[in-house]
Amino acid sequence: MTDLSHSPQGGLPDKRQVAASFSRAAESYDSVAALQRKVGAELLAQLPASCEPQRWLDLGCGTGYFSRALGERFTASQGVALDIAEGMLRHAQPLGGAQQFIAGDAERLPLQSASCDLLFSSLALQWCADFTAVLSEAERVLRPGGVLAFSSLCVGTLQELRDSWQTVDGFVHVNRFRRFEDYQRLCAASGLQMASLQAQAEVLHYPDVRSLTHELKALGAHNLNPGRPGGLTGRARMLALLKAYEQFRQPQGLPATYQVVYGVLRKD
Ligand SMILES: C[S@@+](CC[C@H](N)C(=O)[O-])C[C@H]1O[C@@H](n2cnc3c(N)ncnc32)[C@H](O)[C@@H]1O
Questions:
Q1: What is the CB < 6 Å shell around ligand 1?
Q2: Cα separations (Å) of 9 from 5, 6, 44, 58, 189?
Q3: How far, in Å, is the centroid of ligand 1 from the Cα of 121?
Q4: How far apart are CA 55 and CA 146, in angstroms?
Q5: Which of 12, 58, 59, 123 is the pocket-test mutation for ligand 1 (most atoms within 8 Å of CB)?
Q6: What confidence tens digit (pLDDT) does each residue in 69-88 have?
Q7: In 10 A of CB 252, how many CB atoms?
Q8: Distance from the Cα of residue 136 to its chain's centroid
Q9: Position 226 pLDDT exceeds 50
Q10: Whether this model's pTM surpasses 0.90
């Protein structure tokens, strides 16, 4: 994840940085997105059986994998794929799935009020500092009876990497995530009805730290800021990081925990 110790927006990087980073990752993303596939498939499985949208939105569509899944599931519907990263949209659009591909921000949706029946968003909203704005936009854009289904990440995600950096230089090198209780509180206050909200841990294993950080970079969520102060040289800091992370090693390899939040909300 991008180094956030000096970032605005309460610990999230600037939106232009996010868009540029994901645009750069558009070609490599799919090759390393196994967890993202699993989480999105789980979110699809959580859609209410009664959900038959005329128009759906894949919010933070990335390479469009789930836009295509939604297009296949709701064959008679109109689909919109939206992302803040134009490079992602350039990659996704030729692959189809949705009828429209739009550049936009989840906190300020460029869509008319009451224009969608389903907002599907997998692993994008952790990048939005103002989750209240996201929920309020969802409420505005949904038609009555419409559903917001999202997956996101909460505190505890990449905790091993965070703790390892803490040992090295005491600085924050990993994205700050909202607490699960904040998701609960903000969803409860949103005006949407909460059908379900839960968190589930997913643990991935890597042979070494470089495999993890290369994967984060290929996903567009890179870390390891080279410019950090801290007294040690770049190489010394890296060696210290590798050593610190080794304390977490398990028989399967070095663990990286993701705390995944799943939410399904409905507009009355
Ligand atoms: C981890 S990818 C997930 C992509 C896709 N949903 C999937 O599951 O494969 C996160 C996506 O969210 C997008 N994103 C980040 N912040 C956003 C925002 N404020 N509005 C819209 N999209 C955003 C990124 O550009 C990126 O394509």
A1: 18-19, 22, 33, 36, 40, 60-62, 65-66, 83-85, 88, 105-107, 122-124, 127-128
A2: 11, 10, 30, 24, 21
A3: 8
A4: 10
A5: 123
A6: 999 999 999 999 999 999 99
A7: 11
A8: 19
A9: no
A10: yes
Residue among 150, 152, 126, 153 at smallest CA distance from 58: 150
Q: Which residue segments constitute the domains of the chain, with CATH numbers given?
A: 15-155+175-204+260-266 (3.40.50.150)
Helices 159-169 + 209-219 axis angle, to 10: 110
**C-alpha dihedral, 91 to 21 to 206 to 173, nearest 10°:** -160
Distance 171 CA to ligand 1 centre (A): 26
d(CA 3, CA 22): 15
Contact by Cβ (8 Å): 133, 142: no
pLDDT in tens, 166-202: 998 887 778 789 999 999 999 999 999 999 999 999 9
251: CA distance to ligand 1 center in Å? Answer: 33
Q: Are 190 and 135 in contact (CB under 8 A)?
A: yes
Quick one: which of 219, 222, 257 has its CA closest to 30? 219
Mutate to test the pocket of ligand 1, among 57, 127, 219 (most ligand atoms within 8 A of CB): 127
Q: Read off the amino acid at residue 263.
A: G
Query: Regarding predicted confidence, which is higher, 6 or 37?
Result: 37
Question: Cβ neighbours of residue 32 under 8 Å, at least 6 residues apart?
Answer: 215, 218, 219
φ and ψ of 56, to 5 deg: -120, 160
What's the 239 CA to ligand 1 centre distance in angstroms? 32
